[in-house]
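chain below, 591 aa
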Amino acid sequence: MQNPIDNQGRKWSLIKISDKVGRQTIQAYRNHWIPGKGSRVAQRISVGRLNDDGSIKVVSGFLAQFPEFEGIDLYWGHNELLNKEEFDQQTVNREQVPDISWSEPVIHYGLTWTATQIAEQLGILEDLQAVYGKKSARDLLNLAIYKLDQAGSTSLYGDWLTYNGLPESLPINSRRISDLLAEITDNNMEQYFALRHQRAMKRAKEHKLGMTLSFDSTSISTYSETIQEAAFGKAKQDPELKQINLNLLCDHATGDVLFAGTDEGSVNDKAALPFVLSRMQAAGYDLEETILVTDRGYQSIYNTALELKLELKFIQGITTVEDRVKAAFKRRSRQLNDLIDFSDPDMEMNAFTEKETWANDTPAGRVTEKVNLHLYRNLERAVKEAQRLKKNAMELMEILNKGEKVNSDFFRANKKYVLEHRGEYALNLNALSEAVELSGCFAIRSNCGLDAFEVLRIYRERNIIEQNFNQLKNWVDGDRLYATEGTYKGKILVFVIAESLRMVMLNRIHKAVKSKAPKQKKDVKDNQLADFMKLPYESLPKLLAGLKGLVALKHCSTNAFTLKAMAKKKRDTLALLGVPLPPKVLYRFRS
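prediction:
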């Protein structure tokens, strides 16, 4: 059917317009060319109201001007008017908008909009779709956003969705959730996180930056008797329960998780690292331009040799119990106690670097490589530790000389610092001197070619992975695993996506805060946010709680939800999180 033509033979164009509450109308208009000024709308007339089924409730004024449409049921097509037959033919293969009668008339959209936008910005949804398909990817992301919002059972997700706005999403029952979680395996999880790593590498190269990743693991306890990886380990909490170990690789730049995998709960950290590195290699991870940061729990001669063999750049926290490390601290005692030449007042640390020689077995034969051993000492901490030990030793000495009763734990901790001679007790100065020799000292081993203080700065950034575990266990319900052998991998993936979203939000907040902080206060702590951004302590939970207050109202029988007015503070919150403002009308499904 052709567009309207008036009695002067002029053709009119058509446009669909939505008002501020989501109602849609079709309008006809005619442009007129004005020399020197361009095209102007000369006349406009309403065709009628567009109904949900695509039909148009034609107004009498339109029929009076265009009587040729009298008696015809009009429908809206692709920017044209259609009769019933044409409309049916055009929509034969068109997917119908699902029924949303299950939805509440008032929905919360602030948190869900924010999380969905961040997931799309980071490519999380796209990577999930590449591995799990469009439908499962959307449901997995939605479950993660649900966990981000509240620590409830996944069986309540369908009820939660009725009053929360998530695009292109229908409620799913417990059976569907179980089937969805059962789709997750070690192999497809590794495929997904390999895509996450590739995306992060591409972003780093575009900004001409190297990648720094922190690796660590945590234990998650479970009541399950069917999870084969569950075993008794060394959990500090709930030691009576079996546990699994969750290994994470975290991007310092964004806080995003780029690898997640599980292993048996009895496996220690030193044994876990080689296994994880082999899995990452098999999944196609390119770690050539990456610095891998680990704490001293992963330190072993084998692990260092393995990382050299794999040609990885690393920063390893190491203990001071190694003989070669102890000897190095003794050799460099003067430098580590120097208050001027070898100190950095901003880092509050003294440092000195020694070179170590390591053998590396390559395909071409054995070669030697130089590795930096960075020695550090915090003199303030060393003094405090020495004073504490001496104070405790003197207290124990006085108690013993008076013949008074002493606490058994206190006695065991300090008895080596007291000597007994003919019934009198005195301080064991040699033991005290030996005990404080390495007070305030720690060491880092690296091969990335950076100086000691830059290595220390990067090592301190690994706190980001500790924050990841904090988000996982305290904020997205990941401290206990209620699942079976068939579904626990899926639950782990949902937990990790949820805590990744939280970490990215937290990371963006901290970057925004530090960009506004005075130059002398760039190292801003969580409880200092209020000083610079007028945000309360525990800022992220407060921000998310505020976002949940944003609501939209359903318009009559349509698929549209109209947003209520948004306060400036909420708009500033979205800007702080790097999220655009939502449109004034939201749809659960787009036709």
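The longest strand covers residues 349-362. Residues 13-90 form one domain.
thats it, cya
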